[in-house]
């Protein structure tokens, strides 16, 4: 595949897991009567020049990662490392990782990339450290956090491989912008990539579905998430920033738990039922 210019990123979405029979109402507000769905999980690989970047990493089914996949009903999984191999990418090839937030399904493979520089919002990382110190009655807040991932981040910090972002960072890498997007978590971020088709947003878990941006009745009224530790106000403000970043073109928003499984993007290949698609 050809190298892209420094300002144009080539972008792939890699599907690595699916939750079974997850209530839609556990994710999206106002869907109490809409039953269940098999929820896809994904991460993004992007490259430009000599930069090979991940936005999130998926998780490994080992140790606490295996326990959490069982607890949250995620029976279907393929190694994120195997998916990257399908694109000719080895763990040591990854130069940078931008973490949307610290939930286990987004940060659970971070220890597999020992050469990468890690970018996370300072508010995100430190807020989880604070919440983990709270008494046991507050465990709801940290139910989706794998302590081993936090340990991996601490090790990477000792190795001077962690960059703590304090709010928006334009051109964190050339043509890659990190934007603070709280709501789902205290310090989540979404990533804007400059591509040949225009700016594209990797939304993390700022949204779970297009309906979050279009409204249940396609009336443009933003729909909040139900799975959150932050505020509804912050969620909706973040959704507005995402929609603005793509000038309202929702085909340029990459939803990591996309119910439609990225049918608007080009299918590159399918491995054991999991998709790799090219978004730009």
Automatic annotation (TrEMBL):
Its cofactor is Zn(2+). GO terms for molecular function: hydrolase activity; metal ion binding. Residues 39-249 form the Metallo-beta-lactamase domain. The keyword Coiled coil does not apply. SUPFAM superfamilies: Metallo-hydrolase/oxidoreductase (SSF56281). It comes from the Bacteria. Keywords: Hydrolase, Metal-binding, Zinc. The keyword Zinc applies. Belongs to the metallo-beta-lactamase superfamily. This is Metallo-beta-lactamase domain-containing protein. It comes from uncultured Pleomorphomonas sp. The lineage of its organism: Bacteria, Pseudomonadati, Pseudomonadota, Alphaproteobacteria, Hyphomicrobiales.
């Amino acid at each position: 595949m050809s190298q892209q210019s420094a300002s144009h990123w080539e972008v792939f979405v890699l599907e690595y897991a699916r939750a079974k029979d997850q209530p839609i109402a556990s994710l999206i507000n106002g869907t109490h009567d809409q039953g269940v769905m098999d929820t896809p999980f994904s991460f993004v690989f992007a490259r430009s020049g000599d930069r090979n970047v991940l936005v999130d990493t998926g998780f490994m089914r080992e140790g606490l990662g295996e326990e959490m996949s069982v607890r949250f009903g995620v029976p279907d999984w393929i190694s994120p490392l195997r998916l990257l191999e399908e694109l000719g990418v080895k763990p040591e090839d990854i130069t940078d990782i931008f973490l949307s937030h610290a939930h286990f399904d987004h940060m659970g493979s971070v220890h597999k990339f020992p050469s990468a520089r890690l970018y996370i919002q300072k508010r995100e990382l430190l807020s989880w450290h604070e919440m983990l110190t709270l008494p046991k009655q507050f465990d709801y807040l940290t139910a989706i956090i794998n302590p081993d991932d936090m340990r991996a981040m601490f090790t990477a910090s000792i190795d001077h491989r962690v960059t703590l972002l304090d709010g928006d960072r334009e051109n964190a890498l050339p043509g890659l912008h990190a934007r603070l997007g709280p709501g789902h978590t205290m310090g989540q971020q979404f990533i804007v990539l400059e591509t040949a088709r225009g700016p594209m947003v990797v939304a993390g878990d700022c949204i779970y579905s297009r309906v979050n941006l279009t409204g249940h009745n396609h009336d443009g009224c933003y729909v909040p998430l139900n799975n959150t530790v932050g505020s509804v106000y912050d969620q909706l403000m973040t959704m507005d920033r995402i929609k603005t970043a793509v000038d309202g073109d929702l085909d340029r928003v990459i939803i990591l738990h996309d119910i439609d499984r990225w049918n608007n993007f080009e299918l590159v290949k399918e491995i054991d039922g999991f998709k790799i698609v090219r978004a730009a």
